[in-house]
Amino acid sequence: MFLERVNDPADIKRLTIPELETLSIEIRDFLVQSITSTGGHFGANLGVVELTVALHYVFNSPVDRIVWDVGHQAYVHKILTGRKQDFPTLRQFHGLAGFPKRSESPHDFFGVGHASTSISAALGMAIARDLHKENHHVLAVIGDGAMTGGIAFEALNHAGHLKKRLLVVLNDNEMSISPNVGAISHYLTRLRTDPYYGKIKGELETLLKRIPAFGSRIANTAERFKDTLKYAMVPGMLFEEMGFSYFGPVPGHDIAQVIHLLRQAKEMDGPVILHVITQKGKGYPSAEAAPDKLHSIGGAVVKPKATAPSYTGVFGKTLVDLAKKDKRIVAVTAAMLNSGLNEFALEFPDRCFDVGIAEQHAATLCAGLSTAGMRPIFSVYSTFLQRAYDQVIHDICIQQLPVVIAIDRAGLVGPDGETHQGAFDAAFLRAIPNMTIMMPKDEGELRHMLYTAFTLSGPVAVRFAREDGIGVALDVPYEEIPVGKSEVIREGRDVALLALGPMVAVAENASLMLAERGISAQVVNMRFVKPIDEEALRNLALKNMPIVTIEEGTIKGGLGSAVLEYFALQKLQCSVYPIGLPDHFIEHGSRPELLHQVGLTSEHIAEVAITLVENQHGQKWVNRKTAGR
Ligand SMILES: Cc1ncc(C[n+]2csc(CCOP(=O)(O)OP(=O)(O)O)c2C)c(N)n1
Ligand SMILES: CC(=O)[C@@H](O)[C@H](O)COP(=O)(O)O
Ligand SMILES: [Mg+2]
C-alpha cells in the first residue's frame, strides 16, 4: 500500500511511474469508500486523481502554489497534503472542509467554493512573486465549466497582457454539473476530438519555421499565409492569440503523459495553458454514466424518508405549470439546471437557457428579455446571486423590470459551509429600491408566491430553503398574495414572534413552549422582507407588545433590521430582539447543528421571548398557569 505511506507531497516524489499508477488506484478506492460514507463531491474528484498526483509529483507544494478553481475537486490534493486521516469528518461540523481553506493547510493557497476565481488569484500570486523577486511556480487548476465564467476570461486577458510566468491547467471533462454549454465548450470539443489537430501541430511548426521571411511583399504574403495556416490548424489558437502558450490536449488519466507535459510547461517562461482531458466519475461506472447525478452525493447516514417534496422540487413543478399557461415565461440558469429546472428544460427546451457559470450575464439577459415582452425567471442559489449584485441593481431594479429571481438555498445550506450559506440575499436585496422580497412558510405558499410574482410589474425575489416542505396539500388553486401583507398564524397578547420562511414553524413551536409557561405569543408569518407589513408593526407597537424577529439570514440588514428601522423612523417605541445569523461566517455542518449553533431553535426563541416579557413587566415572569398551585 503506497497510500498508507503518503502524508506529504514529498512522499510521492520517490515513486516510479508504475508506483504512481498503483497509488492512483488506491486513492480512487479511498475516495469511493470515504465519500460514499460521508457524502461530498464525487465525480469531480474521481476525475482528477492522476492529474493531482502528477501535479504534486512535478511541482513542489507549498513552495510552488497550486490554486484550485471551485475546490470541489481538491480532495485528492487534501489526501496528498497530510489530511487523509480527517476524511471521516469531511464536511461535518468542526470537521474537514469540503473545499480548500487557507486556515486548514499551508498547501491551500486560496479559499474557494465559487467558480472561476483561480486564474485571477494565481495571477495575483505571480505578480507578487515577481515583485518580491522570488522564483516559485504558480498554477491555476480550472475546469471547463468554471472556464465559462466571465471572471476567468478577465483574468486570461490580463495574464496574456502581463506575460507573467503562470500555468493554467484546464481540466476538461465536458461537464459542468450538467453537460457543459457554450461556444468555448464547443471549441474545446474541437481541440479534443479532432485528431488532425494534434498530429499536425509538430509538423506545422517545423513547416512554418522553414518559410523564409524576406523581401517586403513576399514577407507580408508569407506572414499572412502563416497566420491563416495557424488559425486553421494550430490547436489552442484562441489561447495563443491571448498571449498563452497552449499545450495539449493530453489524456489526463495517463500519468506518464501528464507528467511529461507538466515538465515541459514548467520550463516555459510566460503564461501557459495545459489542456488536460479527463472523465468525470472515472473508475465508478454509475458516476461515469451519469456524472450530473453523482456530482455531489449524500453519505451513508440514512436520512429519514422525506414525507414531503423539497422546496426546489415544488418550485420546478410549479414553474412548469405556470409556463404552460403563460407562454411569455422563460427560465434562465447559470449552470444550475439542478436548481429545479430539469423538468422545465425537458418540457420547454426553447424557453430554457443555461448560460454557463455566468450569473452576471444571466441577470442582465433576464433584464433584456423582460424589455422585449417576456417574463423571465432567473433560478439561482442565494450564494451565487452575490455575483450579480450590480446587474440586479443597475439592469433590473433601476429600470423596474419585471424579472422574477427564484432564490434557492436561501438560509443555511449545511455541508458546503461558509462559501455557500445563503446568508446575505435578503439583506443585500432589501437595500435596493423597487425590489419585492418574499419567502414562503411552506411549499404550498411557495406555489402562491411564484404565481403572485408573475402578476407583478417590477422585480421580485422569491426565496426558499434547502429543505423539504412540511407536507401541505399542493393540488389547490393558486392564490394571489397581497404584497407587503403578513399572516397571523396564532393570536397572542404578551409577545410577538415575527418569523420568515421555515422559521415560522420553529416560532410556532416556540409559542407552544411559551404557552406552557403561561405566555401568550402571537406568531406572525411575515412573508415579505420588502415591503414590510408596516400596518401590522404599528399595531403591535400600539399594543405595547415586545417583538422577536426570526430569520435564517444575516441579522445585519435583514428582517430584524427592517423592523427596527421602521420603528426608529416612525418614532414608535417598541422592544425588538432580532434572532438570525450573527456577524461572522458560518462553517460547515448539518443544518440542524448550525441552526442550533446560531440560536435558531424554538428553545432559544422561547428564552428570548421570556426575557423580553420580563423586561416589559420589570420583574421575573410568574407562570400564570402554575402560580396558584
Ligand atoms: C459562481 C458559481 N456558480 C455556480 C457554482 C456551482 N458549481 C459548482 S461546481 C460547478 C461545475 C463546475 O464545472 P467544472 O469547473 O468543469 O468542474 P467539474 O465538476 O467538471 O470537475 C458548478 C456550476 C459555483 N460553485 N460557483
Ligand atoms: C461546488 C458547488 O458549488 C456545488 O456543487 C454545490 O455544492 C451544490 O450544492 P447542493 O448540494 O446544495 O446542490
Ligand atoms: Mg468540467
Write a concise synopsis of the structure shown.
With 629 residues, this protein is of the alpha/beta class. Helices cover 42% and strands 15% of the residues.
General description of the model:
With 629 residues, the chain is α/β, with parallel strands linked by helices. The chain folds into three domains: 3-175 and 239-297, Rossmann fold (3-Layer(aba) Sandwich); 311-463, 3-Layer(aba) Sandwich (Rossmann fold); 487-617, Rossmann fold, CATH 3.40.50. It is built from 24 helices and 19 strands. The strands form four sheets. It has a seven-stranded mixed sheet, sandwiched between helices. It has a five-stranded parallel sheet with strand order 2-3-4-6-5, with helices on both faces. A five-stranded mixed sheet has the order 14-16-15-18-19, with helices on both faces. Strand 3 (138-143), helix 6 and strand 4 form a beta-alpha-beta unit. Helix 3 packs across helix 11 (255-267). The longest helix has 22 residues, at 17-38. The radius of gyration is 28 Å and the shape is globular. 1-deoxy-D-xylulose-5-phosphate binds at residues 70, 72, 295-296, 409, 413, 416, 466. The site of thiamine diphosphate (TPP) has 21 residues, from helix 2.
